Amino acid sequence: MIDFNNKGFFKLKQNTDYAENVAALLLDDETIIDAYKSMRDGVVFTSKRIIVINVQGLTGSKKDFTSIPYKNIVAYSVETSGTFDLDSELEIYLSSIGKVKFEFTGKTSMVAISKHISQHSL
Fold first, then answer.
1. What is the pLDDT of residues 75-87, one digit of tens each?
2. Where's the Bacterial Pleckstrin homology domain (predicted)?
3. What is the C-alpha separation between 92 and 70, in angstroms, rounded?
4. Fewer CB within 10 Å of terminal CB in the chain, N or C?
């Protein structure tokens, strides 16, 4: 499970191949929107939820999958990258659970992510 008390969560870079990690968990009518990966961990945005993968152990064969349905998002904040600071952030506030923060590096379309979350949580 995500450590919701932890203030930061990864430095994620777009990696569409990382979505293969959640293929077996998807529902029949669920599709992958985008995937992001840090050193070993990652996050996958689907048409119904956000799936966070926490790779554990030395070999990385043990994985923890946390599913965050869009319907549980009560508020979110997006910080886009600037001219010199290329990092961007997404903070999600969940009902009864708390906050989780994702940090992205490189060219991440925070506007597209924001629109997708809004379409499913409003």
1. 999 988 766 667 8
2. 14-120
3. 10
4. C
Is 3 part of a structural domain of the chain?
no
Domain that holds residue 95: 11-121
Closest CA to 28 of 40, 46, 10: 46
Domain membership flag for residue 76: yes
Q: Is residue 6 part of a domain?
A: no
22: helix, strand or coil: helix
Q: What is the CATH number of the domain that holds 29?
A: 2.30.29.50
Q: Which one, of 49, 89, 52, lies nearest residue 72 by Cα?
A: 49
Question: What single letter denotes the amino acid at residue 38?
Answer: S
Whole-number Å distance between alpha carbons of 18 and 55: 12
Using one digit for the tens of pLDDT, what is the confidence trace for 28-37?
Answer: 999 999 999 9
Q: What's the total number of domains in the chain?
A: 1
Give the pairing of strands 62-69 and 49-56: antiparallel
pLDDT of residue 7: 47
